[in-house]
Amino acid sequence: MKSHLPIRPELRDWILTTTRAGHSVDEVLRLMHETGYDPRQSRSIVATVLNMPVSALDAHTQAPKVQQGRRTRHPEPPRMTIDGRSFNVSTCIERPIVRVLDDFLSADECDVLIEQAKPRLQRAKTVDSGGKQQIDARRTSEGMFFGIGESPLIKRIEARIATMLSIPVDHGEGLQVLHYLPGQQYEPHYDWFDPEQPGFAAITAKGGQRIASLVMYLNTPDSGGGTAFPEVGLTVTALRGSAVYFAYDTGDTSSLHAGLPVTKGEKWIATKWLREWPFQVSPQG
Ligand SMILES: O=C(O)CCC(=O)C(=O)O
Ligand SMILES: [Fe+2]
């Protein structure tokens, strides 16, 4: 049912500008609700302004509804200091949301992470359409996962990430360390899980959808190995201690990214993926 009430021109303009700026219909409805609009009335107003039936509005609001969990706060330039460690937020992109962090980890933290990961490396896997881990030719590196809070160093890094992004430690998947040799890469992909995939329900049953990623570089490859965002033509240089943060909603195709092939030397990274709901049963610390 469409609204037969007169719609104030300012409200009409606001709905149009907000949706054109990329905000979801769901978000528009939430904001209207917050300002005191009756939900049924606001649905009918939004449908009228966007010239669509209210039933079509439902299709727009269904996807966001399943991912109403927490969101990360994006690192703020120019500089952040957390627990005595200062680092620059040296590059910011808004679409996709990307932040480059210089010296997020100390050289010593990088070295220790590599040493602790080395004996536990295995061929890195991806998640198949049934939700199972699989060996994948698109991802040829070796990797391992640390448990949440498994050592004082891991705890310290997880606490730094949680404070920086204003999200509890238990929203994080275990820190993954990856090792790439010359020729190895991680082909373009999204970190969010595709709701169309049959395995989606299983992968998101715990923790819900992924909402952000932090890729930390543990060494500087001699050549190659940057992280590319092809939709914006950006390649972040892999530099020991620096990191790239990116955040996304489900379906955000601008967040496409790739670990470019290492052409000389090797590459070590640690990745932290964040979920919209708590992912850990009982995080330590
Ligand atoms: O290797 C990289 O630079 C990117 C890694 C990545 O995309 C991931 O771990 O999800
Ligand atoms: Fe990724």
From TrEMBL:
What PROSITE patterns does this protein map onto? FE2OG_OXY (PS51471)
Q: Where are the transmembrane segments?
A: none
Q: Which cofactor does it need?
A: L-ascorbate
In this protein, which residues make up the domain named Fe2OG dioxygenase? 171-276
Ranges in coiled-coil conformation: none
Q: Which Gene3D superfamilies match?
A: q2cbj1_9rhob like domain (2.60.120.620)
Listed GO MF terms:
iron ion binding; L-ascorbic acid binding; procollagen-proline 4-dioxygenase activity
Q: Which UniProt keywords apply?
A: Dioxygenase, Iron, Metal-binding, Oxidoreductase, Vitamin C
Going by the entry's taxonomy, the superkingdom of the source organism is recorded as: Bacteria
Q: Which Pfam families match?
A: 2OG-FeII_Oxy_3
Xref: InterPro entries: Oxoglu/Fe-dep_dioxygenase_dom (IPR005123), P4HA-like (IPR045054), Pro_4_hyd_alph (IPR006620), Pro_4_hyd_alph_FE2OG_OXY (IPR044862)
Q: Which intervals of the chain are annotated as region Disordered?
A: 59-83
Q: Which PANTHER family match?
A: PROLYL 4-HYDROXYLASE ALPHA SUBUNIT (PTHR10869), TRANSMEMBRANE PROLYL 4-HYDROXYLASE (PTHR10869:SF246)
| Name the record gives this protein | 2-oxoglutarate-dependent dioxygenase
Its taxonomic placement starts with: Bacteria, Pseudomonadati, Pseudomonadota, Gammaproteobacteria, Lysobacterales
